[in-house]
Amino acid sequence: MTRSKITKMAFKISARNKSKSAMLIASVGLAIGVSVISNTANAKSGSGEYDLTYLEEFGKRLFFENISDPKRMACASCHSPDAGGTNGHSQTNQTQVAVTGADPNGQNHGQNPDKEGGNPNPRHPNAGALKPPTNKYVQFLDEYGERSGTPNFSSSCAPFRLPCGGAFWNGRATGTQIEEAGIKVFDGLPDGNKYEEMYTKYLGPVADQAHASPFINPVEQGHKNKQATCEQVAKTKWGSELYYFSWGKELDCKKDTDSAFGRFAVALGAWQMSADNNVFNAKRDTALEYDTIHDNGKFPLMGLTDEENLGHDLFYGAPRPFGGAGAGCLFCHRSVRSGETSDGTDKFERYADDSYHNIGVPKNYEVPGITETTIPDMGVMFLTDIESHEGLHKTPTLRNVDQRPNSNFTKAFTHNGYFKTLGQLVHFYNTRDIKPNCEVEYGIQAATVEEAIANNCWPTSEYPGTTARGITGDLRLTPKEEAAIVAYLKTLTDTTVVKSPLPYHSSKYDESRLSHTYLPKP
């Protein structure tokens, strides 16, 4: 037996004891370094916002500040770091799922209109219509400073000619909207070419998502217009100074409103793509890095338990209906950069194909305004107007899918938040097509997930006609195998949580904070 195999066996035996496993993982971290995997070559540890460029810090403060009317809601209100970049309010996740806007009494602009054109949201007139998607691991900069992650939207992508790219559940943040709106963020700057060279990489779906814009959406942060948003930013201690440091130009909310608002979106994109927001330090990452150094960097990993390694094998194995021995999760939850033969060892794996699918999720009648007569969110068909795209929603990353502030916290899963645990969701993937229909077989209408599981049935899909068949619905997994997949998914949780910015202190301009230094491409 080789030394590496003996080492791996000893590690695996120890890993069965949770306390010993925790100690070993900690040792791994020390062996590799404080920052196990850093996107940027000059990222430091523990030095606050000065790890960030000026543009990233400006974006981070825009993200965490209550920039709303009334002043009670931030981007972080719907995209809480300790909940994996999704809604951080447990009670909302348990019930209505969609987050109420800054002004609870404001007017909803048509989410979930019913077939008769009636009041869309009688219970919560100023709530959204879907679960907030995560803002983490959508796009990021790799160690060479190149953009990776979701591409710009396309209605037909290889290999299956499905729509892909863009941001939001329906892809409407296409990646080109700022430019198509005629907003030229680099015009009028003292040295526009310099800023264009540094910041062009931040234009795309994430910046478009910020520009869409939650700041002036009446069901979100609720400012009446761009100028009002800009003026609130200008009144903060940091707004005007960081804008000037980032763009080399004074913030003018009256004469330069559109350009300033576009630059806000670019800054939000820059921070959300930064190493501060995408740390790649989950248990899986640490174990993979250790195994790469000490063995062959292949699964099963020494730092994962037997159950977690089994979950990985099931995740990447071809589904049993197709003659495989796994669950086929990789068909939708594999990054494009991983290649066609990915085995889950890509350092920057995001666990999302950035395509749009309908997995057959039932209607969630807890979402404000959803009744038997309402039309559920139509997904990417909203953008493409192609009938076969009806009910297709964007595949989210699985990184931080189970991150939560405490063990009693309830998360909501899928675009409408119908499922409340990973176990429920995996069980649905496994049994959707083999269990009785709740409405047809048992007469149970508007069943919650708890009612469906208690009655051993599943409700009808929101859009049955476009529901994916074969790779979901009858995976023939045992309860032990379902649990193993859940265990593996939990290894994708970051071991650190982004902190809100420290109080701002004015400082002298430091040109070195305009950009990071990246590794040269090999």
TrEMBL record:
Gene3D superfamilies, sorted:
Cytochrome c-like domain
Question: Listed GO cellular component terms?
Answer: cell envelope
User: Where's it found, cell-wise?
Assistant: Cell envelope
The answer to whether keyword Signal applies is yes
> According to its UniProt record, where is this protein mainly located?
other
- Domain called Di-haem cytochrome c peroxidase: residue spans: 57-276
The molecular function GO annotations come to: cytochrome-c peroxidase activity; electron transfer activity; heme binding
Signal peptide coordinates: 1-43
Q: InterPro entries from the xrefs?
A: Cyt_c-like_dom_sf (IPR036909), Cytochrome_c_Peroxidase/MauG (IPR051395), Di-haem_cyt_c_peroxidsae (IPR004852)
Can you tell me which residues the record assigns to a coiled coil?
A: none
Q: Which UniProt keywords apply?
A: Oxidoreductase, Signal
Which Pfam family would be a valid example here? Answer: CCP_MauG
In residue numbers, the region (Disordered) covers 99-133
Kindly provide the name given to this protein in its UniProt entry: Methylamine utilization protein
Q: Which organism is it from?
A: Photobacterium frigidiphilum
